[in-house]
Design brief:
CATH architecture of the domain at 34-110: 2-Layer Sandwich
Radius of gyration: 26 Å
Number of helices: 3
CATH superfamily of the domain at 34-110: ACT domain
CATH topology of the domain at 34-110: Alpha-Beta Plaits
Helix content: 25-40%
Shape: globular
Structural class: alpha+beta
Strand order of the largest sheet: 2-3-1-4
Low-confidence stretches: 19-26
Largest sheet: 4 strands, antiparallel
Length: 115
């Protein structure tokens, strides 16, 4: 075997060893946060489907949906929704749309991040 053939064989082995090692790169996709929506509304039957419609027409299935009737001086509906894998701009837009729904009094949003 010539020196040139040995050098080529050594380079091939070194290259294959380097490619077998996997290291995290900056091109890996970061994990997206979960966006939370807290809605207070009048205790009306049509409020929940109108809120759900904002997610359904975007083909988003909430990670968590919890609704509770709060009885008191005036009956209120409390809806807590968590949605994963949406952009912050879309979450803000959905919250603005919720505030336009008849019967909705308050919409609070937050972002749940993971370390």
């Amino acid at each position: 075997m010539s020196a040139r053939t040995l050098a080529a064989a050594d380079n091939h082995n070194t290259d294959s060893q380097n490619t077998d090692r996997t290291t995290p790169t900056s091109t890996t996709r970061p994990q997206r946060a979960i966006f939370c929506f807290s809605v207070r509304a009048a205790a009306e039957a049509g409020v929940m489907p109108r809120v759900m419609e904002l997610f359904a027409k975007r083909n988003l299935v909430p990670y968590r949906w919890y609704a509770d009737l709060i009885e008191g001086a005036r009956d209120e509906l409390s809806i807590d929704v968590q949605v994963a894998d949406i952009e912050p701009e879309l979450a803000d837009y959905i919250a603005r749309c919720m505030r336009q729904i008849w019967g909705v009094e308050t919409v609070l949003t937050s972002e749940k991040g993971f370390a």
